[in-house]
From TrEMBL:
This is Pyruvate kinase. Homotetramer. GO terms for molecular function: ATP binding; kinase activity; magnesium ion binding; potassium ion binding; pyruvate kinase activity. The gene is Os11g0148500_1. Its cofactor is K(+). The lineage of its organism: Eukaryota, Viridiplantae, Streptophyta, Embryophyta, Tracheophyta.
Length: 527
């Protein structure tokens, strides 16, 4: 564990806590991933979500078919066009997810101390004594005394809507369980989680591959959320599969850590993946409750030092049905920011919650408040020490740009980039001011037609804390023969002024390539 990332006045003026927050063009430096579903798929609602602060839209294929999600995506495109706000697309795979098959969708009542049988025979009707599941090998994986959790998909944690089972005996392919708490399972989809048990199913199933090929490839998805990542090899296999699908070779893979198996191989997975999603819902079942915070802090620190985006899930579950989060949830969001999270992922809260827009807005405000007391100076020193010497050329430039921006109290850092790597490295040092990433498109050809790169790189920065992209005119190169590159810089400055980030007499730090050299310069603006 490391020293705190919290910076407060000593002693803090308690009255200052009640001072109203200043409105900003960027609601928060921390990004928000929203899952689009029944309550959040209309053009108007998605537009409101974008204005509230959502920068990545997640499409969860655990439910709904490709046609349904395509309709939602078309609505997202219309919302982006009307709001003029960029938004990335994340496809979330199903993976080796165990599910209870309840075809009739009739609520199932389970009584404490009763027994219920889990069977792989999916043709049977689900009832209070029999739960058909989608996996043939469960009986082989379990032994008496094992713990099983069953709950509504993206459940809210209520004991009355989820149930704990304890295996009493295994009969052939069936598993007989004792019910540990009274509950009613309502809805069409329940997930089943066995604590610390290896499930012998592929991480990327044939169904997942089919969805990626038929839905992900035509829509040029920005991120693939790889559910139940357990080994680095899972990421390598997914990347090899994506590399054969044209533009998806640029798609970033975010490994979703959901169980102890993924936790045990975390370092190797982090080295292979483009980012990490801490799926705290399933981790909270697999880990003892008192260990969850420790894993979160350790995993986020590792991601921060590697310069890879880290996303935290399951923060404001109660907002699925309520307009305000609980005090514990509000504190949890802030702690995720102080621990180093790049983004907060909202699941049920936006997918089927009653207040998707209000949830995004509330989480954004909490993140913004936490960012004000984030100890950037301590974080910067720790990161520099971790990286060590000699630094790479690009890392040295990035860290110097951040240090210069802090020393001169710059209002923004502007970074010209083609691949997005330089901008991500600057963001790695968590500057207290926004980083405006000006993505310069590159011209490429397959000998049949011309096309520009840059759109992927711009959207993929929408999940990185503090990074705000804009696409530059392709006629202006990222590299310049002079130290000015005036036209594209003027466009970036005008964008900053229009958004209220840059004002007269502000100082701005600019990071760009001039010939073969990288340059960091400080500009002081006139009236």
């Amino acid at each position: 564990m490391h020293s705190t990332n919290l910076l407060l006045e000593e002693p803090i003026r308690m009255a200052s806590i009640l001072e109203p927050s200043k409105t900003s063009f960027f609601p928060a430096m921390t990004k928000i991933v929203g899952t689009l579903g029944p309550k959040s798929r209309s053009v108007d609602t998605i537009s409101s979500c974008l204005k509230a602060g959502m920068s990545v839209a997640r499409f969860d294929f655990s439910w709904g078919d490709a046609a349904y999600h395509q309709e939602t995506l078309e609505n997202l495109k219309l919302a982006i066009k009307s709001t003029k706000k960029l938004c990335a697309v994340m496809l979330d795979t199903v993976g080796p997810e165990l599910q209870v098959v309840n075809k009739s969708e009739t609520p199932i009542s389970l009584e404490e101390n009763g027994t219920v049988v889990l069977t792989p025979h999916q043709g049977q009707e689900a009832s209070s004594t029999l739960l058909p599941i989608n996996f043939d090998g469960l009986a082989k994986a379990l032994t008496p005394g094992a713990t099983i959790f069953v709950g509504q998909y993206l459940f809210t944690g209520s004991e009355t809507t989820s149930v704990w089972l304890e295996v009493s005996e295994v009969k052939g392919d069936d598993v007989v369980c004792i019910i540990k708490n009274t509950a009613t399972l309502a809805g069409s989809l329940f997930t089943l989680h066995c604590s610390q048990i290896h499930i012998d199913l592929p991480t990327l199933s044939d169904e997942d591959k089919d969805v990626i090929k038929k839905w992900g490839a035509p829509n040029k998805i920005d991120f693939l959320s790889l559910s139940y990542t357990r080994h680095a090899e899972d990421v390598r296999q997914a990347r090899e599969f994506l590399s054969k699908l044209g533009d998806l070779s640029q798609t970033q893979i975010f490994a979703k850590i959901e169980n102890v198996e993924g936790l045990n191989h975390f370092d190797e997975i982090l080295a292979e993946a483009d980012g990490i999603i801490l799926s705290r819902g399933n981790l909270g079942i697999d880990l003892p409750p008192e260990k969850v915070f420790l894993f979160q802090k350790s995993a986020l620190h590792k991601c921060n030092m590697a310069g890879k985006p880290a996303v935290v899930t399951r923060v404001v579950d109660s907002m699925t049905d309520n307009l305000r989060p609980t005090r514990a949830e509000a504190t949890d969001v802030a702690n995720a920011v102080l621990d180093g999270s790049d983004a907060i992922l909202l699941g049920a809260e936006t997918l089927r919650g009653l207040y998707p827009v209000e949830t995004i807005s509330t989480v954004g405000r909490i993140c913004a408040e936490a960012e004000k007391v984030f100890n950037q100076d301590l974080y910067y020193k720790r990161t520099v020490k971790y990286v060590g010497e000699p630094m790479t050329h690009l890392e040295s430039i990035a860290s110097s740009a951040v240090r210069a921006a802090i020393k001169v109290k710059a209002s923004v850092i502007i970074c010209f980039t083609s691949s997005g790597r330089a901008a991500r490295l600057i963001a790695k040092y968590r500057p207290s001011m926004p980083v405006l990433s000006v993505v310069i498109p590159r011209l490429k050809t397959n000998q049949l037609k011309w096309s520009f790169t840059g759109a992927f790189e711009a959207r993929q920065s929408l999940i990185v804390r503090g990074l705000f992209p804009m696409l530059a005119d392709p006629r202006h190169p990222a590299e310049s023969t002079s130290a000015t590159n005036e036209s594209v810089l003027k466009v970036a400055l005008d964008h900053g002024k229009a958004s209220g980030v840059i004002k007269s007499h502000d100082r701005v730090v600019v990071c760009q390539k001039v010939g073969d050299s990288s340059v960091v310069k400080i500009i002081e603006l006139d009236d």
